[in-house]
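Our working data are protein records whose layout never changes between entries. Instead of coordinates, the fold is spelled out as a row of discrete tokens. Here is such a record, shown just as it appears in the course material:
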Amino acid sequence: MISRNSHDSNSYQIEKKYKLDKKKVIIIGPAFPLRGGIANFNNLLAKAYQDLGNEVVVYSFSLQYPSFLFPGTSQYENGDAPNINIKTCINSINPINWYKVA
């Protein structure tokens, strides 16, 4: 995110410009409640776009791995959901579902 420095008026103008140019952003990939580095990155990316005034929707997996393939204890994260629009509707092992989501 662009930081605002009181000595640098250009950074404020850049931030103001991006807030005026609102976009619709779609992110496809793992997100909360799934855990892991990519899910965490997608959550932070969506939040950054949202903080700039954009409309953000994250399409995440309803099933990322079958349980017998998952190496850890759980593929789900405990905790509070981030304040972003996440739709958990993609089944990673069912290609027919991919067409329905599209």
The mean pLDDT is 81. The beta strands are 24-28, 55-63, 85-91. The first strand starts at residue 24 and ends at 28. Residues 37-51 form the longest helix (15 residues).
